[in-house]
């Protein structure tokens, strides 16, 4: 208070000074007064707040980078193709237990991603041009360290197929030593890349066929335009191809590209547009078994195909429209009510079926339609869906109960990759 | 050959005679009219009039009146085929910036008509691909189905107007000629997709 009187006193005496002098004195006095008042207030406040009383003074910091722990069953890679500006695709690394984003890597222009079965690395097949949208094209297969998310090898590929991503355009052998890259440059072929040497070991032509469904450590199967398969066995630098007889009509009831394969034994369930499931044990001599119907498993009539396109019933559809829990043999399929030719429509339900008995176990209603369903491979599996807004929804796959979500993980979530897939 | 076929053949033979009698009468009438016309007109004026009828007569079917009649509900009700697919049953023929425009039955992506181009035109700054996938779409205006080539326009990133997804006849990528997911920018330099056109390349009816 004394200081305040003194300050007022000084102001009173300032009248003897000239105008300019008076203003300089006045300013310095005001500054002095404000400083003293702020310091007093700070001291009083500090003493009054017991919570801050014991806080140490903040120390200088060093910038650093987070290093993730080793991959677990519930750490998921989620691919976002970002359709509205596809050159900016990315792969998110998500902790599904916490519903938390851990990091991300670029996955440029209709990329594909695959993970080493043991979680030692993951690989992104991507395409860039030297000047953004023009210039020299480079098809790349960077290998990522899953704990630092840094590139350990940035291999240049001879080419790759440019297509709205199909999961099976990039796959990996059961031992993680061979990576299969499907290419259409200039013809249908598969590049076999050794993950240890990062070299293309050989190029296997698969005329009239596409995609790669891996089996064992040195073989894959592709689907062909005639409705059959070609089984490719690799031995050293040689490949042997054997065709099966056609088992479906691609024009009337094609099988989905995103049909699930159980990697350890190559067992695959090819799901058709109408909802038929063709079990097949992929090998050098693939055998295709009699088809069963998703709708019949649910006690409904078998759905017609292109011959009766107006018939509205429950049908499979979406993008990553199915997922398999290897150990239990439970198949999760996105289903929607629609006519034929609605095979990319988002599912409003997930049907959980048992592949051995062809039984429907559960119908899970989704709050929002999803084009993606994924599942983890552990004993307490999680299930994943998405929605139009790019949410990443996490479910308990054992109970079918919704757990949590990341409301807007990205733009267009197409695929999940879980450890062991 | 069935019993009824034989009866028909026999019936034709029995009818030969009366036809000959009628044709004789026609011969006389035509001869008379021809002689009358020849005696009252010059060869040049006949050729001119006949030519004029031939020329303008051939244009009659192209007149708006004729085309409007062909598209009338009466004609449609009489014999036009029903829409063969769910998309066709909901399709319209007037707004190429809407997803249910009849040609878009198998399109996937951004409509060039909404991106600065047109139904069969690329926007400026892009390049049309010489390659494409093919769909078969039903035109409700004329009741015909057409082969439609979906040619992508390339060189700029996605145009990002509201996308459309037609699925009729869309087959997986192992049937590339009918797959709408492939980046159909082969032969355009950088294979970067901007939008899709839909070009009629033939009649599929």
Automatic annotation (TrEMBL), chain A:
Belongs to the aromatic amine dehydrogenase heavy chain family. Pfam families: Me-amine-dh_H. InterPro entries: Metamine_DH_Hvc, Quino_amine_DH_bsu, WD40/YVTN_repeat-like_dom_sf. Keywords: Electron transport, Oxidoreductase, Periplasm, Signal, Transport. It comes from the Bacteria. The keyword Transport applies. It is found in: Periplasm. This is Amine dehydrogenase. Its main location: periplasm.
């Amino acid at each position: 208070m004394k200081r305040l009187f003194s300050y007022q006193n000084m102001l009173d005496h300032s009248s003897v000074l000239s105008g300019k002098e008076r203003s300089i004195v006045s300013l310095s006095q005001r500054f002095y007064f404000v400083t003293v008042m702020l310091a007093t207030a700070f001291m009083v406040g500090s003493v009054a707040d017991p919570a801050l009383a014991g806080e140490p003074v903040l120390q200088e910091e060093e910038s650093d980078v987070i290093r993730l722990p080793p991959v677990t069953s519930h750490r998921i890679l989620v691919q976002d193709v970002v359709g509205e500006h596809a050159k900016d695709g990315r792969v998110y690394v998500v902790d599904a237990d916490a519903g938390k984003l851990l990091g991300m890597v670029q996955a440029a222009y209709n990329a594909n991603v695959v993970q080493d079965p043991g979680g030692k690395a993951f690989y992104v097949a991507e395409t860039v041009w030297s000047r953004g949208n023009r210039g020299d094209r480079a098809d790349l297969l960077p290998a990522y360290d899953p704990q630092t998310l840094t590139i350990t090898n940035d291999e240049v590929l001879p080419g790759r197929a440019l297509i709205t991503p199909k999961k099976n355009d990039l796959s990996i052998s059961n031992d993680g030593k061979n990576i299969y890259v499907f290419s259409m440059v200039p013809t249908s072929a598969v590049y076999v890349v050794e993950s240890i040497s990062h070299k293309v070991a050989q190029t296997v032509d698969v005329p009239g066929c596409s995609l790669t469904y891996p089996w064992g450590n040195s073989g894959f199967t592709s689907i062909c335009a005639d409705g059959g398969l070609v089984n490719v066995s690799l031995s050293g630098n040689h490949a042997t191809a054997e065709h099966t007889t056609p088992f479906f009509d691609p024009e009337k009831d094609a099988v989905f590209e995103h049909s699930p394969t159980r990697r350890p034994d190559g067992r695959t369930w090819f799901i058709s547009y109408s909802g038929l499931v063709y079990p097949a044990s992929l090998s050098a001599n693939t055998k295709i078994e009699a088809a069963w119907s998703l709708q019949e498993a649910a006690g409904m009539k078998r759905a017609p195909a292109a011959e009766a396109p107006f018939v509205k019933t429950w049908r499979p559809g979406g993008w990553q429209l199915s997922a398999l829990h290897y150990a239990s043999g439970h198949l999760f399929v996105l289903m929607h009510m629609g006519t034929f030719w609605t095979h990319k429509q988002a599912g409003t339900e997930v049907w959980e079926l048992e592949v051995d008995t062809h039984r429907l176990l559960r119908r899970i209603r989704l709050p929002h339609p999803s084009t993606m369903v994924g599942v983890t491979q552990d004993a307490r599996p999680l299930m994943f869906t998405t929605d139009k807004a790019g949410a990443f929804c996490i479910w308990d796959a054992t109970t079918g109960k919704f757990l949590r979500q990341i409301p807007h993980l990205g733009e267009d979530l197409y695929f999940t990759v879980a450890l062991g897939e | 050959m069935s019993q009824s076929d034989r009866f028909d053949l026999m019936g034709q033979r029995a009818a030969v005679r009366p036809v000959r009698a009628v044709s004789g009468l026609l011969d006389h009438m035509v001869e008379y009219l021809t002689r009358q016309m020849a005696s009252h007109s010059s060869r040049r004026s006949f050729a001119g009039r006949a030519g004029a009828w031939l020329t303008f007569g051939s244009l009659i079917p192209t007149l708006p009146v004729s085309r409007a009649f062909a598209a009338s509900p009466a004609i449609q009700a009489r014999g036009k085929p029903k829409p063969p697919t769910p998309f066709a049953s909901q399709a319209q023929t007037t707004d190429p910036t809407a997803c249910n425009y009849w040609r878009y039955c198998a399109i996937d992506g951004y409509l060039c008509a909404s991106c600065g181009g047109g139904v069969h035109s690329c926007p400026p700054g892009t390049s049309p691909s010489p390659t494409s996938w093919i769909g078969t779409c039903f035109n409700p205006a004329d009741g015909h189905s057409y082969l439609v080539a979906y040619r992508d326009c390339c060189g700029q990133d996605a145009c990002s107007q509201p996308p459309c997804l037609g699925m009729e006849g869309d087959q997986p990528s192992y049937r590339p000629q009918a797959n709408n997911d492939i980046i159909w920018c082969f032969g355009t330099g950088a294979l970067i997709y901007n939008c899709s056109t839909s070009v009629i390349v033939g009649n599929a009816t």
